Amino acid sequence: MLTWLTHSVNGLAYGSLLFLVASGLTITFGLMRTVNLAHGAFYLIGGYLAYDLATDGTDYWLALLAGVVAAAIGGMIVERAFLHRLAGRELPQIVLTLGVAYIIGDQILANYGGDPVAPPTPPGLEGPVTIGDWIFPKFRLVMIGVAIGLALVVGALLKYTPTGAKVRAAVDDEEIARAVGIRVPLVFLLVFGCGTGLAAFAGVWGGAFTSLAPESGFEVLLLALIVVVVGGLGSIGGALTAAFIVGLVDQYGKVWFPEWALFTLYASVAALLAVRPSGLFGKAVFR
Amino acid sequence: MTDYAIAGRNLTMQFGTFRANDDITLAVPAGERRALIGPNGAGKSTLFNLLAGQLRPTSGTVTLLGRDVTRVPAHRRARLGLARTFQLTDLLDELTVRENVQLTLAAQSSAHRVFWRPLGSVGTLAAEADAVLAQWDLGDFGDRLVRELAYGQQRILEIALAMSRNPQVLLLDEPTAGLSPADARKLTGLVAALPRTITVVMIEHDMEVAFTLSDQVSVLQQGRVIAAGTPDEVATDNRVLEAYLGEAADA
Amino acid sequence: MRGLSTGRLTALAAGLAAVAGLVLLPFLTDSFYTFVATRMLLLGLFATAYNAVFGFGGMASLGHAAFYGIGGYSVGIGVTRWDWPPLVVLPVAIVLGAAAAAVFGIMCLRVRGIYLLLLTLALAQAIAGLAFYQTEWTGGDNGIPSISRDGLPSAVREGDGFYWLSLGVVAVCVALLWMYQRSPLGMSVVGVRESEARMSATGYRTGRLRIIAFTVSGAFAAVAGVMEVYLQGSVSTANMHWQISAEVLVFAILGGARHFLGPFLGAVMVTGLEVWVSTYTDRWMTVLGIVYIATALFLADGVLGRAGWAVRRAKDLRAGPAAAPAAAPKDRTELPAEAPA
Fold this sequence. Notes:
The complex is a heterotrimer. The model of chain A has no long low-confidence stretch (mean pLDDT about 85). Chain A is globular, with a radius of gyration of 19 Å. Chain A contains eleven helices and two strands; from the N terminus they run ααααββααααααα. By secondary structure, chain A is an all-alpha fold. Chain B is α/β, with parallel strands linked by helices. Chain B has a domain at about 5-90 and about 165-250: 3-Layer(aba) Sandwich (Rossmann fold), CATH 3.40.50.300. Chain B is built from nine helices and ten strands. The radius of gyration of chain B is 19 Å and the shape is globular. The mean pLDDT of chain B is about 90. Chain C has 15 helices and no strands. Chain C has helices at about 5-30, 30-50, 65-80, 85-105, 115-135, 135-140, 160-180, 185-195, 195-200, 205-230, 240-255, 260-280, 285-300, 300-320, 325-340. Chain C is globular, with a radius of gyration of 22 Å. The model of chain C is unreliable at about 320-340 (pLDDT under 50). Chains in contact: A-C, B-C. Chain C: Keywords: Cell membrane, Membrane, Transmembrane, Transmembrane helix. Chain C: It is a multi-pass membrane protein. Chain C: It is found in: Cell membrane. Chain C: GO terms for molecular function: branched-chain amino acid transmembrane transporter activity.
């Protein structure tokens, strides 16, 4: 019974990590309709930079902040220099961001080598919590809370502040957005920076959870993409739900039928997309 | 019953909360020229899509040459003898004019299943296609990509493609829309000259064209047929005048 | 019309020279470059097969590593378990690749654009998941090492001989794809790319045509995967990695997806660049990343698309100054700017 609980909470914690990664994607991909396959690379930038600074003795929270800011700036550079030229052209966006991901991944490999590294667990969150007979890492429990909190915050930002409306206006009809005085390039730039900054935050925390290696950028990217699409493009609540489902399916799969783990995960996602391309909570998207 | 070439009965098409077609009945006898007119958003194109099979109605039935085709997909209705053009020309832009015709003809026979010989060398496709091009004065443009053609030529090509399949029922969606007056006259002439064995249903915004070409006119407004009759009857119908004047007043 | 014009003679001569060069290549270079050339041929075939779905079918798949990998594992499992000869391996691989691709096509009937891309990716990942975790069959992450080529006739087993075998297989496959692409069936797939509504209103079953495009593509992609594993002598999850799907997509875009030989050219260019760059630096992935970025920004029509555009413009210019587009003088003013003052 307790093992079962541990697996479930582990699944939810992994799902929370996926949501942290996916939250940035929901914004850039779901809202801006910009496909960023370098999202995982920004996850790595955050994680490796924080790891580097923290092991050099920098204060943990400062290291975290540095990682997030660096990735946000990096993301804005990519958006400004390249991506904004490819607005609405998904295929070139994919190729371009994949190229960016290759460069970042390769440079990380050159500087840090291929062995896994792990940024430290946030101070105060080390060690286990004990509830009766049940023992579980505190950090992972907190991660679930952070994911839910982040979902609420991002959701509220998009729903109740002008920023959300501006982004949606800029995406839906750039001409009109411009006409009513929204500075579309600036909005896109900032939103993209937020997206990659969130990826870096996920990298720092996720790195402490699962550790980092140059190729782990793509692993989380694929799962996060699934979360975003299964949840329905642009739906934060959908992404959170999907992240929990994917986390649980992944966890149970690995425990109960390891030979079929990845297959069941991806095959069920594929089956869902085949019959319901708009995802679980998305609106109709036939174009 | 079977005298009707194409008929929609009690057709309703619901998109979410919007009812594009509301209990429309339209029965066109064989050989007739029927024009559909009505203000923008009256549901004319939706009705076409229901008749041709691009859409399935929420309720109601469609019969083609006496056969219930409500659940028959577009490609099978096409094989039963229905041809249509599209409101915005929808051709195979990156293929040549000749290839457009050849592909259309190939769908008529087993030629479309051939996968080892070039399109132009299968059976008599090449000769037939060239005959179609010559017949419609497109012979000089055979090797041009469709997207390089002038708009008027594209519209003529659409009708040529539809006619090349020897359809029994032809649906023309705004054949003269966007054409210069000269091109529009040419196209009107071509449609008027179509053999009487073919039943033609057309959506047409230009009243003059609609009234010249048609035997019967059906007027749609807000998803319903509000009037039907000969061009003369319709032209003097108060409801029709109201619908059009109302639109003019709104605009 | 019947006689040979100068243009046709030139084309014929160039074609003959190319064929002669390809056949004689092992005599002109050392074994390393023969190996490289073999890889180019096989990746070129893979890219050409991919383009039946991508460039001609208008469907951007990100799942073709699955069919390539299925071909590869057919060799690995067939040869190491049951000692299958190539004449058994190849048909099995073709059938499996085609069947998997047909499933992809069926699953993708309702999706377009980015959704099709993600769905094919998910499907390919599901198959890669099998390769990864069904360790008893696939050897898991390590894959299947030391796959023997003993089943091949000794004349084509090694080096130059294997190159000629690959050349023959690739030539036959590319010729078949060429015939298919020009045929009514292949052309109607292009028709679906241009307008599904038009094609179905003309009487075509567009869904079936999309499935056919996938099936053809998957079958030939599997052949490329088979030959690649015979060449390498091993197969692993790397043969199914989704980055292979991305790479073949970039081959097609870079070379020119609207041209039959564009993807082949793209494969040759990237493979050649990899060999060349790798003699100078270990950072090939960084260079590849730059290639991807440049492709996305500047080569949406591919090298052949660009070349075709340049040729057309040159013709326009020769046709007379009046017909020349206004852009021409602007180009000329830019040239002297670089010259020393």
